[in-house]
Amino acid sequence: MRKILSLMAIIAGAWLVYSGYERQHSLAGKADDSLSRLGQKIDGQGYATAHVKYYVAGLVLLAGGAMGLGLARK
Question: Which of 1, 11, 19, 22 fits a 20 to 30 Å CA distance from 55?
Answer without folding.
Answer: 1
